[in-house]
Amino acid sequence: KVKTKIALETTAGQGSCLGYRFEQIAHIIKNVREPERLCVCLDTAHIFAAGYDMGSAAGAKKSFREFDRVIGRDRLAAIHLNDSKSCGGSRVDRHAHIGKGEIGLGGFRFIMNEARFRDIPKVLETPKGKELKEDVANLRTLRKLIGISIAMCPQHAKFRYGEGKNRTRHRRK
What is the pTM of this model? Predict the structure, then answer.
């Protein structure tokens, strides 16, 4: 018996792409011959562009609760970590460096500190330069979020109080 699994990546919903709503992915999984072979790679910029709130720890927690309810916690196989140049709910797929886009740092803080994600592979899927210096900076940013509450971190206070870019996004209807 083949044990290979296939990960469906969440999409931003740009154009006619499917997979930007958790319900769409759940429908695909439910209707294949061997659903046990399918899992999900959640892309932070994609779900933000699809209208899920990733701009705060509370918003990210709520979005992951929705993922758990609709798709199932056991189906999460990987997380692509990236900020978004696009507004939330815009359905436009444009990746940005961690903390430099519309999402901000709150959602990433939640992901980096949530025990259930500790063993889930996380992949930086941010814009790259020739020498990958950007990856070093993004990893530093993510590491600084580990074990730190946004409330304890004055340089990130704007994200706690809703003054960051993440509050300018469009809302899904």
Answer: 0.84
